[in-house]
Amino acid sequence: MPLSYTEAALRRRAADILGVSADKITACQLYKRSVDARKKDNVHFQITVDVTVREEGAVLRRCRSRQVSRVEESPYVLPPLAAPPSVPPVVVGSGPAGLFAALTLAQAGARPLLLERGGDVDSRRQAVDTFRRTGVLDTATNVQFGEGGAGTFSDGKLNSGIKDLRSRHVLRTFVEAGAPASILWQAKPHIGTDELQKTVKGMREEILRLGGEVRFYTQVTDLVIQNGAVTAVVAKDPRGETEIPCRQVVLAIGHSARDTAQMLHRRGLPMEQKPFAVGVRIEHPRTMIDASQYGGAAGHPALGAADYKLSCRPDGGRGVFTFCMCPGGVVIAAASEEGGVVVNGMSEHARDAVNSNSALLVGVEPTDFGSSHPLAGFDFQRKMEQAAYRLGGSDYRAPAQLVGDFLAGRGSTALGEVQPSYQPGVTLTDLRECLPPFVTRSLQAGIPMLGRQLSGFDRPDAVLTGVESRSSSPVRLLRDEKGQSAVAGVFPCGEGAGYAGGILSAAVDGIRCAEWVLKSMT
Fold first, then answer.
1. Residue 438: is it exposed, middle or buried by C-beta count within 10 angstroms (0-12/13-18/19+)?
2. Has residue 122 been placed in a domain?
């Protein structure tokens, strides 16, 4: 369909394909819509519609179009639970995995206790105060300390490569909680940080309405294990430590819960190193990305800001790729420890900021960690983050460099047209001083290759900001076919446990873990 199509035109087109008159169609709803910009002189939409017609059987018997299929979606059905458990299950973490695990348990009548964690309570509060003094926590960021959120540093990108029937249920749940209905048909669904905060609140209120409990500023500091099974969690809040009895605990701790991972290692939970990726954020003018992707159609109100997904493998070596692309977005502070600088990206729902940005990453293998310890990946990340902190000026400004200077092997001293969006600001420098040499070499070889895939990607004044070190968890908490760790009753879950790579996949894993918990109660 053309970019300026009308609903009436869409209905007529559907009727033509079905071989019926338009008045035979009783409903015509968007199911999926994507942009086809392969030919810049013919940018248009590819659309799938969910159509209801009179005399459906007869219409389908006559229709010979390969564009038509009959599909019935089965609604998500909760596993049965005969009665509420005498001891409620505990869910640790309120990111997408934790929220959906808790919501699913609440919907089943299990009355879960959701603990919103976030590292040591005292040091976390100190970090918040530090960030506020330096301007990191302003209206441009989405760090939701103490408020819960679908990923503490997230803007609600819901595209995923997983093929799981629960995915559609996740999207519908978000909409019921207040997310824009457009995520049900967008090819790359996006809620936006501004809308996501309201959506998370809606989910949390539903958990409470169904009999669950939510506690903020609560960090799990230990597990109580007897005869190989969990019997309680030790939790710390501003009032002190307390022991919470439980027989099932979902560990949806996120990929930055280093203190909790260390505690779990001490408690003997089996875990292993896993690959991840590190690099920088790259920023371009949004109008340039739009023009590169859409040609003359750029700026059309039906299109919005353009995205991209690029990858290459210089000389057959490590993969270099873009990740978590934020059209019309900003680069944000995402540090979770004092003395470290970490960057991420976000877009609000409108995606109308001046720049577009993306993570630009290089694959990292466990052999790069320098140790066989299961948690060595955290040390690998921390070394980069602390180097970035020092390079930025030791005041939470981030180190930055222009692409042209980076490719030429010289530090940057002045900006060009592209103005970095990171707050509280950047320090122009040489990013080679905080990146591992293999990452630098891969990026220097990969950026020109990606520039041949997307015109302008390697423009000399594009800004690189470091470091992006938290693309995913560097550790996996092992679980069996019933979802449990070697410690019975412990269910490792989501991205922090190494079983997801984004909001949608983490949410699906949260539902899956809740199902395992419910089965363990029978």
1. middle
2. yes
